[in-house]
């Protein structure tokens, strides 16, 4: 399967070939500060990913950087340790065929919302959630 996506203004467009991870919501402070809410992200191997346009990168920690469109500001990618690039699910074109299957860093979530979708929640990082691959 080939999925496509991009930013709000269209200056950045990307293509992902093959399986993508189910969508996981991250409630960490960095995701909240950079996105305005929590982030919902899928991921794919870097070699499955191709981008057109200019992605602006912000180094958000010692081990990760966040990619966004420098024109419209849309947050698009999280690039950290590991073989996969995280791709923010809201930037994908419909239909994605993906499902949100869990929440991580819920200990850092905002106090203004409740997580009530019945999917697993982890207070911090949880590789059992973030390394699964769609069948
Ligand atoms: Zn843009
Ligand atoms: Zn996060």
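Sequence proposed for the structure above (135 residues):
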């Amino acid at each position: 399967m080939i999925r496509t996506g991009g930013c709000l203004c269209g200056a950045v467009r990307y293509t992902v070939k093959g399986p993508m991870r189910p969508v996981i919501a991250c409630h960490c402070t960095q995701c909240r500060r950079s996105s305005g809410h929590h982030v919902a992200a899928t991921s794919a191997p870097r070699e499955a990913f191709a981008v057109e346009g200019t992605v602006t990168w912000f180094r958000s920690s010692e081990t990760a950087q966040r990619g966004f469109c420098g024109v419209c500001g849309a947050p698009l990618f999280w690039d950290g340790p590991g073989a996969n690039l995280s791709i923010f699910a809201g930037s994908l074109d419909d239909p994605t065929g993906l499902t949100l299957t869990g929440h991580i860093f819920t200990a850092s979530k905002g106090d203004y919302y409740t997580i009530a979708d019945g999917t697993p929640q982890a207070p911090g990082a949880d590789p059992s959630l973030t390394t699964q691959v769609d069948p």
